[in-house]
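TA notes, week 10

Several of you asked for a full example with nothing omitted. So below is the full record: structure tokens for the whole chain, then the designed sequence directly under it. When grading your own attempts, check the secondary structure regions first.
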């Protein structure tokens, strides 16, 4: 008896068993691979897929030779199948944890590829000593990570940019903090007497990629002062930008937290604060029936961590207007201003 025949007798219903097997076929890219994953014969899966399509009244795949390509209806059904699968996993995770043998709760983080590794480490650090917490971090493009977030493959996405609101499920952007930007390097010869930004004329610069808000803010600042930047390199990876700053071949534009460890150890010397320039970091989540309990804890933790860092920067800024001097502020050597208890082991 097919689901459709049974449905006529007892009213509208959906065979979730068939739905989740359809999900496996879509995720694995075909019936044969899904049958190996599920330890079910390919003929059985094909039969169940046909029953589901008959019941829904729409083809879920286009058969193109041996390949199965999702139709528009198939993509819509897959979105719901993903959500149902995730909800089932949440129920098991919450209730199948007897006594002291509690199953670890996973926090699945997506990090936009160029994002500072220091910030990523700060985000997960509060959970590293928790025996009941398991952490996974996936890097990727913002758009791809948002797709995974909406399908509940991820719990949170870390990004410098907020996600657009609207859509289903509902998206939330939480600001983790706004960190000052600066120019850092190990250059031995920099004519500070000209003042900022005139002192940058002829100075090799390493900048973030053009599409980043920080790069756009910086170029606008120079344009307003009539200074043309000498760009020697542009990269979208903060770890590489840090290495370029350490090379001694120029100054790198970055948020202060990206190079905090190098400033702590005095490996980077020149620090030029940039008036009004900063990088804002976000934690992007979606509405869930059973939200991950770790998210609120780590978001609050990193918000406080960034606030402490910014206070250190502000307290050690030079009192002279930045536009008239580029003398190194005292926070270029945080050892003089940062209490020992605020030190963190940094991971670039």
């Amino acid at each position: 008896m097919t689901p459709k025949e049974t449905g006529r007798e007892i009213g509208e219903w959906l065979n979730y068993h068939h739905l989740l097997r359809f999900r496996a076929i879509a995720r694995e890219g075909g019936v044969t691979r899904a049958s190996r994953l599920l330890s079910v014969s390919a003929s059985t899966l094909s039969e169940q897929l046909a029953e589901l399509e008959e019941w829904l009244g729409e083809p879920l795949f286009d058969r193109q030779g041996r390949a199965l390509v999702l139709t528009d209806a198939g993509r819509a059904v897959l979105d719901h199948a993903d959500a149902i699968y995730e909800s089932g996993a949440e129920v098991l995770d919450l209730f199948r944890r007897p006594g002291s043998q509690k199953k670890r709760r996973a926090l699945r983080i997506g990090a936009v590829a160029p994002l500072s590794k220091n910030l990523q480490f700060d985000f997960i650090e509060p959970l590293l000593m928790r025996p009941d917490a398991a952490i996974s971090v996936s890097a990727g493009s913002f758009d791809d990570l948002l797709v995974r977030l909406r399908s509940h493959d991820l719990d949170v996405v870390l990004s410098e940019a907020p996600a657009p609101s609207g859509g289903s499920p509902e998206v939330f952007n939480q600001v983790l903090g706004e960190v000052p930007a600066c120019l850092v390097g190990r250059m031995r010869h920099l004519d500070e007497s000209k003042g900022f930004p005139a002192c940058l004329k002829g100075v090799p610069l390493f900048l973030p990629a053009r599409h980043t808000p920080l790069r756009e803010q910086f170029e606008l600042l120079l344009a307003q002062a009539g200074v043309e930047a000498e760009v020697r390199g542009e990269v979208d990876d903060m770890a590489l930008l840090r290495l370029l700053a350490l090379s001694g071949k120029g100054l790198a534009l970055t948020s202060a937290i990206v190079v905090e460890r190098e400033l702590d150890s005095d490996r980077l010397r020149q620090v030029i604060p940039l008036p009004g320039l900063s990088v804002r970091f976000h934690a992007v989540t979606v509405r869930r029936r059973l939200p991950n309990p770790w998210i609120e804890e780590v978001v609050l933790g990193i918000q406080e961590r960034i606030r402490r860092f910014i206070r250190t920067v502000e307290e050690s800024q030079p009192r002279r207007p930045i536009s008239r001097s580029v003398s190194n502020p005292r926070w270029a050597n945080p050892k003089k201003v940062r209490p020992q208890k605020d030190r963190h082991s940094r991971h670039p």
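The mean pLDDT is 77. Use that as a sanity check on your answer.
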